[in-house]
Amino acid sequence: MQHLWAPWRMDFIKGPKPDGCFFCEAAAANAARDAELLVLARTELALALLNRYPYNNGHLGINAGKIAGAGVADHVHQHIVPRWDGDTNFMPVVAETKILNEHLTKSYQELRAAFDQMS
Question: Which range is most confident: 48-57, 78-87, 101-110?
Answer without folding.
Answer: 101-110
